[in-house]
Design a protein that fits this description.
3-stranded antiparallel beta sheet; SH3 type barrels; 113 residues; mainly beta; N-terminal domain of TfIIb; 2 domains
């Protein structure tokens, strides 16, 4: 049984084959099936923090900038320590839990501790 790869643009798995292409039903991105085999390693690429350190699951990080939470009046303060991060795909690479809830953060606003 063949597995259909996740979308290289949005990293969601709602994709389907269409002739010699794959199509993402969520973002509409199309790519050739021959590209899918060569880009499978891209999803597993390294995630680096603001200072170039490689992040991995379970690391502790500190926020290097105040971040406003979209759709809320909450602000995540610079210097806040986050333990036990999880690396995820997509634009916001880091999934973490803090006092205010669960957040997806961009690695460029984090520093490995």
């Amino acid at each position: 049984m063949t597995t259909i790869p996740a979308c290289p643009q949005c990293a969601l798995e709602n994709t389907y084959p269409d002739g010699d292409h794959y199509v993402c039903a969520d973002c509409g991105h199309e790519w050739q099936q021959s590209e899918a085999t060569s880009t499978d390693g891209v999803a597993d690429s390294e995630v680096r923090d603001a200072y170039g350190n490689v992040l991995s699951n379970g690391d502790s990080v500190v926020l290097v900038k105040d971040l406003k939470v979209k759709g809320s009046s909450t602000t995540l303060k610079m210097g806040t320590k986050v333990k036990g991060i999880r690396i995820a795909g997509g634009d916001h690479e880091v999934d973490c839990k803090m006092e205010g809830g669960s957040f997806m953060l961009k690695a460029i606003y984090l520093k490995k501790v």
